[in-house]
Amino acid sequence: MKTKGRAGMDASLVPADTSADVRERGSGVSRQVAVLPVGSYEQHGDHLPLATDTLVACAVAREIAAGYPVHLLPPVTIGCSHEHADWPGTVSISAVTLHAVVRDIAESLRRSGVGALVVVNGHGGNYVLGNVVQEASARGERMALFPAGEDWEAARQRAGVRTSLLTDMHAGEIETSILLHAHPASVRPGYETADFVADDRRHLLSLGMSAYTDSGVIGRPSLASAEKGKELLASLADSFGTYFSFLTAADGAEGTSAQGARGRS
Question: How many Å apart are CA 119 and CA 138, to the nearest integer?
Fold first, then answer.
């Protein structure tokens, strides 16, 4: 079920809702769903900001909130970016900390009457989020991780993104396109000549990103466009419909709520 977006919805990272807004939005659904963007603070080459993954997650979450009656939360802005530690500016927290933060948020939401949580993950290194959702589902809680790999692939095809998901790993065509659409002022010159491909990254977790790229880029940002970014977000919003349906369904669609994926890196 889709609803029209809220007029004048705040486009900043922190939603401007009041308690009355949340109460009114939740009155029309069988179970209220909160959406939590989770990003990172890590290098994205010289053309994208350290906050790229957070900006992407928030852009996806805002697109969802424009189409569905969900409770949009402010983002978690620092995640598990240890593989990027060789670059200045990168900051990480442990997987244990991120797990605890998301679980605490979910518990707090349930106490306030919000019975389901969708974690919108913008960073591929936040692997632990899959475990958070897996464990919550086993406890009978309503939680999902979004977008799944299939959602990204559908969005890639719809938007005409030419780079595969394997190649478009970091600061490439997808992330640059979304920021060109949602935050164009944050994209610096140089992305047109920053392409770098490293499809075989089997030792990434052991050696880190610096073993595979000097620039911090793995992908083809030169192919990015604002129009592709717009279509990527629109496709993801459409894909969210099935998540919203099973999270608000009376039977809970058991076994489905653990679906999700790592998101972009």
Answer: 17
